[in-house]
Amino acid sequence: MRELLRAGNGGRVILEGHCNGYFFLYNHFQELDPGNIYIITDKYPEILEMYKRNIECLDLNLDIVYIADASVHYPLRHGCVDILVNFMGDNEHSLYFRSSYLADIKPYLSDEAEVIGSVLGYSPDAKSLEALRRKYPEGDRLGYRRDLWDKIYAQEGYRRESSLAGAIMKSTGLYSFECHQDGEALYMEYFLATPEKKKNLRKHEV
After folding, report:
1. How many separate helices (H) and strands (E) can be counted in the chain?
2. Helix H segments across the chain?
3. CA 172 from centre of chain
4. Contact between 73 and 105 (Cβ < 8 Å)
5. What pTM does this model have?
6. Which fold has domain 2-125+140-168+189-205?
7. 3-state class (DSSP) for residue 125
């Protein structure tokens, strides 16, 4: 993942949202190209203010745009994002929305934009999913259904290549982890998602 973000000669727009859960770019800014524009979004202004202060202390000379917005109606030009960094964004989004994160963010992605990230999820018969339904009734929680991840991305014209990092059998009783039932597997995957159009172009170029 870091290799994909490092590749290129600058001039790209890289977006990471829902960073109150996990902020991947924050841990890797020193390795990344200062010629890119980085957009960071979250619903909590205080989270963004904290990270902004910390990042400024690093004196990295990066172009970073911070957007505090609980919706996905960002003041951005459609099609401007080249890479979406999506670490548990699918999970967070599905707790509060009834549409997928990729579907809602897709208008801002270019036709060749790739998505890199990680996601947590359960088997479809897990009791933990029912606990999520009770705690977060406003969302659809489909971001936690690991049997649907490929389908959700395929509906938006993306193909996922994923790798299972492991499974957690017991977690702390905080936030959404409060819903994790002891003994049930909470799987974690890392993935790269590429537009089908881009895949087809590569095939024709070979």
Report:
1. 7, 7
2. 2-6, 45-58, 89-96, 101-105, 127-135, 149-155, 196-205
3. 22
4. no
5. 0.91
6. Rossmann fold (3.40.50)
7. coil
For the cut 90, the answer to whether the pLDDT of residue 205 exceeds it is no
Q: What is the pLDDT of residues 8-51, one digit of tens each?
A: 667 999 999 999 988 999 999 888 888 999 999 999 999 999 99
| One-letter amino acid of 105 | I
* Cα-only R_g, the chain: 17
Type of residue found at 58: L
Tokens of 191: 């993935």
Q: What would the pLDDT profile of 179-195 be if each residue is shown by its tens digit?
A: 999 999 999 999 999 99
Q: Tokens in use for 108?
A: 């801002």
Alpha-carbon distance of 204 to 31, in angstroms, equals 33
Mean pLDDT of 141-159: 97
Contacts of 156 (CB under 8 A, 6+ apart): 100, 102, 103, 106
CB 121 within 8 A of CB 146: yes
